[in-house]
Amino acid sequence: AVLSFVSLCWAGMVMGELTKIDGSFYVVKDKDGKEHKIHFDNTTVKTGDIKAGAMVEVDEANGHAKSIKVMEMKK
Predict the structure, then answer these.
(1) pLDDT for 7
(2) pLDDT tens digits, residue range 7-61?
(3) Which of 11, 24, 33, 47 has CB 3.0 to 4.6 Å from 61, enough for a Cys bridge?
(4) CB 28, CB 12: distance < 8 Å
(5) SS3 for 7?
(6) How many CA atoms lie within 13 A of 72 on its CB side?
């Protein structure tokens, strides 16, 4: 129960690779290898070509993506 409470209260930025889009959820793997499953809907602001394999930055609160954008790749 404590872990569920912690996950509901956490908010912030998640950056990493968009490994898949699973229904209405983005699955993002961060630099530490942790996967984040983040809900999205028509209120989520999308910037760039959102597809599996893209490096993204997700602004989320309570497990919901407020916005997602594709990060520019460094050359």
Answers:
(1) 44
(2) 444 568 999 999 999 999 999 999 999 999 999 999 999 999 999 999 999 999 9
(3) 11
(4) no
(5) helix
(6) 2
Looking up tokens 């594709």 gives: 70
DSSP 15-71: EEEEEEEETTEEEEE-TTS-EEEEE--TTSEEES---TT-EEEEEEETTEEEEEEEP
Contact criterion met (CB below 8 Å) for 58 and 47: no
Residue 66: burial class (beta carbons within 10 Å; 0-12, 13-18, 19+): middle
Helix (H) or strand (E) holding 3: helix 2-9
Per-residue pLDDT, 12? 85
CB atoms within 10 A of CB 36: 20
